[in-house]
Amino acid sequence: MKKKVALIFGGRSSEHEISLRSIKNVFEALDKSLFEPFLIGISKEGSWYHIPNFETLKKMTGLSDASLPREAQPTTLICQKGRPQFYLLEKQIAFEVDIAFPVLHGTFGEDGTIQGLFKMMNLPFVGTGVLGSAMGMDKEIMKRLLTYAGIPNARYRVLHKNKPVSFDEIKNNLGLPFFIKPSNSGSSVGVHKVKSAEQFESQLKDAFQYDEKVLAEEFVQGREIEVAVLGLNDSPKASLPGEIILNSEFYSYEAKYIDENGASTQVPANLSPEQVQNIQQIAVKTFELLCCDGLTRIDFFLKNNGEAYINEINTIPGFTSISMYPKMWEATGKSYSQLITELIQLGLEKYQRDNQTLFNYLALENKLDQK
User: pLDDT (tens digit, 9 = 90+) per residue, 302-314?
Assistant: First the structure.
């Protein structure tokens, strides 16, 4: 019998449009002989809708309450007698699914919030859980843990809106140029390469639009290398690395998604076997350290002296036609469709493992009494 998969996309994030590009590719790659997809879109305002068919999805570039497709049906997620269901509010019809596949990049999708909802509703899901998602999303927390574990990463300062730090103070501490980036954001939204005091104020103001906490981070000169990691936390595997080759100053939102000439990719990256092994080992160690499950893309700076620095991690990486995560697994020998199938199977396996954990002490006592 086919497993019913809720493909969840959109959301209240600056990466909303990227999520729609990703979900179209995931839908097409899904093995329809094994899985029956259900499309659940979350609008920019946070409303949930059932999109009944792929033809409607294909036409969509975003989802807003003010401009809905005619076919969109308001829906909500409920738990009835311990079984999760999506409930169509106008038609008053409920349907069950076996697993959720969130393709929600950024805030409210990648930060542990929706994973917490799934856990509360007893709904299996693809990817990292609440703790790992939150730690991976918050770059400050991630860097604290990396530093504690001895995994190299760039030096940084934490900036808060209500605790101003001067340009000179950062420059003296981190050197020039340096980067500023929102602590909880992705796709290089709000990220700036600061070269002068004149730029600093406006660029910092822009970064604070996306988060209350911003990192100032030293500039690391090196190649941009990425690795895809797949598996549960106790048995992850790393793909062959890929490389981002920049034709712009850094891998900005524009270079990633808008400017066709902003960057190119090389998969697999031109690295020695020793470099590949080292980067894969660090990637797996980082995956395990940050309590990841299912999938994570880990981004590195490879310095000229051969040192590999972690830049950041992405627990729901892009699945667009140009995204590195599926490309790196294809280069490693796993097709896009095989990858999606394995991710769903891992989500179901993780749910079964988690369900072996007892949450009710009295239930255990009753079992012992019956013996």
Answer: 999 999 999 999 9
